[in-house]
Amino acid sequence: MATAVEGVDLNTPPTPELAATLRKALWDNQVLCIRGQSIGPGAYLTAISAFGEPQIRPEIPHVDGFPAVTTLSSEDRDTKGDGKRLVAGATWHSDDSFMARPSALTALYGIVVPDEGGDTQYANMYAAYEALPEDKRRHLDTLQVVHTMKPAREGLGRTRSIDPAILAQRPPSTHPLIRTHPETGRKALYISRNRMDHIVGMDRAEGHRLIDELVEHAIQPQFTYRHKWRQGDIVIWDNRCLMHKANGDYPEGARRFMQRIIVAGEVPV
Ligand SMILES: [Fe+2]
What we know:
Layout: E1 3-5, H1 16-29, E2 31-34, H2 41-49, E3 54-55, E4 62-63, E5 66-73, E6 105-112, E7 120-124, H3 125-130, H4 134-140, E8 144-147, H5 164-168, E9 173-176, E10 178-180, E11 187-189, E12 196-199, H6 204-218, E13 224-227, E14 234-238, E15 242-246, E16 257-263
Parallel strand pairs: 1-2
Antiparallel strand pairs: 2-14, 3-16, 4-5, 5-16, 6-14, 6-16, 7-13, 7-15, 8-9, 8-12, 10-11
Bound molecules: fe (ii) ion.
């Protein structure tokens, strides 16, 4: 899992050949890092458009004039909650799993990165699925899960407090626990722990125990990759076959600033 590319300058829009090479690298490795970039939001959007259609999420702060380029900053505070530092995505998840069509890909551009800490971790959900015993896989193949934007669990880390008006526009979605990747045809566990309200037809607590057990299985070292950010990295990852997790373990006062673009996905099947 995970590959890095050097010697590409995304100030020049990718040629069709380069775009095809980068997409293949992503499908083969799930996480693609393009190193050494120094680009503005327009070039960033053009480059990520080679992978699919950028999406807008109005509830997240964005770069002026570029609503699809959202920002993640060490200065973010939960202004609708208690005002404490906000590290979004600190529990294992897959982006926007509560949407009917969750984002396929997420790109994150590290513009200011701390010297220590702030890594992003990934778990390969193809490999985690494939390592399960066959009878377990057969059972999991039959399960559907209701995902909600409102956090489904207590004590799994902080999330941005959500405007009730936004919440009202985002009804729960039901997705299979095992999904098939539309590009590779491979099956993967589809887990976003804090958004999984319940497994259909299963007692809520029992469903949560099963999800927790699968998360513990999937985050074993042989299935995971930890990205240590360098300034200028653009990391693109595939939400359809990965979980990921942010780490807020950099010191108070250290700066971290990133720009994020999410790419449209499909209904999980
Ligand atoms: Fe995330």
